[in-house]
Amino acid sequence: MEFKSIGNMYDSIRSAVKGEGGKVEVTDERALRGEVIDNLIYNGVFNEEEIVREARQVIKGIADVMGIKPASIQNLYEAMGRGECGGFTVPAINIRGLTYDVARAVFRAAMKHNVGAFIFEIAKSEIGYTQQRPSEYTACVLASAIKEGYRGCVFIQGDHFQISAKKYASNREGEIDSLKGLIKEALEASFFNIDIDASTIVDLSRPGEMEQQRPNFEVTAILTEFIREGEPDGITVSIGGEIGEVGGKNSTEEELRAFMDGYLGIIDNRMKGLSKISVQTGTTHGGVVMPDGSIAKVKVDFDTIERLSRVAREAYGLAGVVQHGASTLPDDAFDIFPKRGTAEVHLATGFQNMIYDSPAFPEDLKKEIYRYLADKHQDEWKEGMTEEQFVYKTRKRGFGPFKERFWNLDGERRERIRAELEERFELLFKKLNVPGTVEYVKRWIT
Q1: Which domains does the chain have, with CATH numbers?
Q2: Which ranges of 44-86 does DSSP label H, i.e. alpha helix?
Q3: What's the whole-number mean pLDDT along residues 382-389?
């Protein structure tokens, strides 16, 4: 249902919600979790700006009174760093399309297994090509929690808030200011977990790890201070750093120590520092695509994960290391992550693939998207690349231009896709050993 005006919106939700903006009262939760929240979030994404903004405010207000709270995972990660809890790896889930439906599947799986330690995230690059600004992403996640009857903390994260090496080289201050603008927008949208990625400006031509990592830790320190100045009262944003760009050479202990020692030397106990550190251990974002479109098997260096996680915890009090680019790994890899002390694992492309490859996804829409990609992104079709490789590499770019078409898939198709994803989330949650972590979240996150 498309709202014609803000007055029309409030008339339409009156059966379940009273009040305006962020000050609301839920009078009928059953009605709210029916069509009311479906209509609110649809208009919070697709309508004129004034109605979009008001619908999102109402969703945040409803979430608040229902005990659905955007939160920082900082205190839990500090407890992991002290060795007071552990044995699990926190999944951080990137949602590129069908965001409301995918998040509903996440909450269903989490509630079924008492999972409290899980993160919703979106990367700087994904914000662009999926056409989801932070406030929209937060509204979708909170609406899905309302829809499924979830209560408790919701961890929303800015993933790979990344410095562009090319832009940094030509205009250092301009690139840093650009990232500060995105961070400010994210904080205002209740992203209370932010991963800074300045690993792109590590300079391997310099002598020694400290000098190689210097641009990285200097910029990370600058952005840490900016986050601390802008974080809401009573909330310590969980901040991640990164020492090795995903897809590059595997990280070393010397690099981790150089980065952390340099970084801590700058912030000098003036503020809270990082809660975790991302390293490179052999993966690439999206996996390595073979000519037939299949994904090559990748050997993850779990010895590096275990060694660097131990150093991160024992020497610097961090939760441990973060593994990126993991969603396309074979299933038998995932239960190794908690055994080797991985603090957090980032999962994205695998869920995108499930949506596109689901029997419930319309074949005619898929073909239309692929034709669009071949027309609009021909420059990405490199010499020697097969059609299957091109499609696999670029189909993530279909989520933005076709966003409303995804949302308007019929209910039966979307429910079948949700069910497939829910089953996958359940499997991953079990392998990462997060069932039962509601207890830890309740204990450590206030």
Answers
A1: 6-65 (no CATH), 71-354+419-444 (3.20.20.70), 362-408 (no CATH)
A2: 49-65, 74-81
A3: 90
